[in-house]
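Record ABC transporter ATP-binding protein, 565 aa.
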Amino acid sequence: MPTGAPTGGLVLRRAIRGQRGRVIAASLLGMTHQGCEALVPVVVGVVIDSAVATGSSASLLRWLLVLAALFLVLSTCYRTSARITEGTGELAAHRLRMELAARVLDPRGGAEANRLPGALTSIATNDARRVGSVATVLSYGVSAVAALVISAVALLRISVPLGLLVLLGIPPLLWLGHLISRPLERRSETEQERAAHASGVAADLVAGLRVLKGMGAESAAVARYRTTSRDSLAAALRAARSRAGHEGAILALTGVFIAVIGLVGAYLAMDGSISVGDLVAAVGLAQFLLGPFQLLTYVNAELAQGRASARRIAEVLASPVTVEGGRAAPAAPAAGHLALRGVSLGALRGVDLDLPAGSLTGVVTGDPAVAADLLLCLAREQDPAEGTVELDGVALTGLDPDALRRAVLVAHHDADLFESTLLENVRAGADGDTTAVDHALTASAADDVARLLPDGADTLLAERGRSLSGGQRQRVALARALAADRPVLVLHDPTTAVDSVTESRIASRLRELRRDRTTVLVTTSPALLAVTDRVVVLDDGAVRADGPHGELLAADAAYRATVLA
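=>
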């Protein structure tokens, strides 16, 4: 973990510190509520000694009024405290979700490494909720401890041995409760990890359901999820057994402790050391103590689970970034001159490539890994292992990633659509420029898609655009990339699911719309390559050929086979 990175303890402290005022207010109200509850058996004992035993109606009425006042105060404090504590937990969880979202969306990347999207969702929901619960139960714990202290003081006034028994017995009980909670903490962490993994696998299977059906791989996918789900269930059952054992052990300890208090009180009453009213008060306090002890049991369990979840959140927040953030910003507006100098990354091998400002360049490769690594470099999702990528003469490593992506847009082949209207999907990157949106819809032929929908461009699309065909989704995604109107646009196979007539129309409109701005088409489509200024052929990760599309078709058999296959 990087130096200074968040830890589980730091995540917990920040969650509590962010709601400090609400926690203090809820704790004060809870202490008042518990204090009034502890005083009820004491007042009942006083009623017995000063009113019932003496037959004084005035004294009875006076103490009954005192009891009524106690119940009024404790009920008011309870309602107010409960409202504040629940809000505290929700606010703390919300703040954590915002931190997690900011980390996942950080332009430098890294949070998603080795984590399925469903796992990140589980951390941002379940784990954030559990850590938020720590802020909620903290005031409960303070109230319970206050109730124990008030009860001990009341018992000291009744009998010093009884008071000392409570005061000296509470610390060992709390220490034993902490020891008993350790297995629960470990198993809770495992439970959350398995549940997050199961959620991630489920999300992946749902997203690829059509592909799985097309391949006839449903049974293998079901078997995979069944195994993952069973592992998650087993971890959940182990955590449930641990929690049950934890609560049972704590209740047994507190039950024995309260029984000892009752027995000592009875012995003192029989010995004449305390009155009947004092005995009633002592027994009432002993029974009341069961509530604070149960509350502490609950708090201890929530803290154990909260600590486990906090560590998982800390792992995401402390994830090392994929690329280091530079400080500089591209010129506004950027000219758009891209250059790769000796770039090596994954399948790329010392690529030297110059893409002048305003050019329309095709890049052809038969190896999908080469295309993927090239896109990673141009989008600065990863930095080259060797060499540099430059924009207008400045290395991308010296540019702020967020500012860079406002100048260079890399539109991946598998870009998803949002669950919103077609028009809102296209507007997502347009910065409010309605003219750019209209031109993008026309250039991508997405306006034809809109005309086929029941509500036109205002038709609500299903999740990931599944209500559209593959070709329709591609056109809407292309329109979104074009509407962004970036100085540099890199498109990866934007028309693989589009018919040839529409593809030719898109190619000519694309060239016109992107005139005088740098555009890179990573594709093997002859229709798109025909409108480019030049085509660069990457073979075995290096530049093998460079020239106009027509010349390469005529002179290069390997190129011809790749493009016309």
